[in-house]
């Protein structure tokens, strides 16, 4: 709960804020817990918010506070399992790493004499990550079918936009909380493939 509170963000589709959640949970958590343990819990669609300013991402998605809490619990258990498989040059959405660490790494490349850089942006990667590939990679690290099923439900939860529920159809809405740990695993694999094809070496520093 502390992590979700630190991330703040708007309320989800149910309108329940972080401040209101504790009282709401007292009345509903027993049923939610039963649903999680029995496997019939269904995540709520993500509330899509559009920005009127010129941004790289013109919209964001907000899960309900309850779903953020559940997602964060999953991440805290899975992070130690999947993080060791990530590239040492990957800094995004990882514990104890930030953009500042990435900048220092690039400065180190410059000091050692590297003079060429290729700037690549995978357009809307987190919005279009292949669910099958993502679940396949997670399945190699996670042997609990209930957890994998729940993650699959989150990926397919859909998006609420202007009161209409839109299916995700194999893509993930841009969510500001908790999912990036799962998707960074997929990003690491694709970056490794690019390294081999573009540079002929899987160890060329690719800072992300």
TrEMBL record:
Please, which domain of life does this record's source organism belong to?
A: Bacteria
Q: What UniProt keywords apply to this chain's record, in alphabetical order?
A: Nucleotidyltransferase, Plasmid, RNA-directed DNA polymerase, Transferase
Among the GO molecular function terms of this UniProt record, one is:
RNA-directed DNA polymerase activity
For this protein, the record's InterPro entries field holds: DNA/RNA_pol_sf (IPR043502), GrpII_Intron_Splice-Mob/Def (IPR051083), RT_dom (IPR000477)
Enumerate the spans annotated as Reverse transcriptase domain: 62-160
Supply the PANTHER family for this chain. NUCLEAR INTRON MATURASE 1, MITOCHONDRIAL-RELATED, PROTEIN YKFC
Please give the family membership noted in the entry: Belongs to the bacterial reverse transcriptase family.
Protein name, as recorded? Reverse transcriptase domain-containing protein
Q: Which organism is it from?
A: Thiothrix subterranea
């Amino acid at each position: 709960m502390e992590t979700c509170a630190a991330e703040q963000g708007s309320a989800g589709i149910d309108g329940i804020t972080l401040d209101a959640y504790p009282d709401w949970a007292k009345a509903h958590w027993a049923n939610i817990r039963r649903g999680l343990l029995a496997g019939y819990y269904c995540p709520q669609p993500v509330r899509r918010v559009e920005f009127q300013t010129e941004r790289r991402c013109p919209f964001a998605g907000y899960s309900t506070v309850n779903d953020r809490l559940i997602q964060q619990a999953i991440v805290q258990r899975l992070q130690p399992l999947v993080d060791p498989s990530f590239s040492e040059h990957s800094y995004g959405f990882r514990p104890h790493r930030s953009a500042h660490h990435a900048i220092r790494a690039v400065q180190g490349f410059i000091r050692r004499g590297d003079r060429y850089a290729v700037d690549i942006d995978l357009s809307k990667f987190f919005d279009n990550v292949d669910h099958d590939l993502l679940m396949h990679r997670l399945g190699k690290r996670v042997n609990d079918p209930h957890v994998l099923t729940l993650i699959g439900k989150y990926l397919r939860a859909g998006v609420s936009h202007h009161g209409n529920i839109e299916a995700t159809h194999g893509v993930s809405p841009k969510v500001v909380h908790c999912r990036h740990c799962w998707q960074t695993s997929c990003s690491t694999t694709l970056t490794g493939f690019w390294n081999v094809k573009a540079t002929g070496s899987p160890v060329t520093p690719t800072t992300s």
